[in-house]
TrEMBL record:
It comes from the Archaea. InterPro entries: WH-like_DNA-bd_sf, WH_DNA-bd_sf. This is Transcriptional regulator. SUPFAM superfamilies: Winged helix' DNA-binding domain.
Length: 84
């Protein structure tokens, strides 16, 4: 319910911050899901569903593992380069 000042309230308690946090969490979840779907489309991540049809598990494919290892190696090289 909106009060006279246009704030969302429940029983007179301002809940605007909580609504904003929930909205941010939903947007973050959508962005994460979009990113994961892009990784699946690229073949870097696979999704396996459990028997209940609801639960699922995300795993790096062999290509995803190789990319992750390459990024790790590049990061180590960059850190050593900055340290010298």
């Amino acid at each position: 319910m909106l009060d006279k000042q246009g704030k969302s309230t429940i029983r007179g308690v301002d809940i605007s911050d909580q609504i904003e946090q929930i909205t941010d969490q939903r947007m973050n979840r959508r962005n994460v899901n979009r990113s994961i779907n892009q990784l699946v489309e690229c073949g870097l991540v696979s999704k396996s569903e459990f028997a209940d049809g609801v639960s699922h598990d995300w795993r790096l494919t062999d290509e995803g593992e190789a990319l992750l290892e390459s990024l790790h190696d590049l990061t180590e090289v960059a850190i050593r380069g900055f340290a010298e």
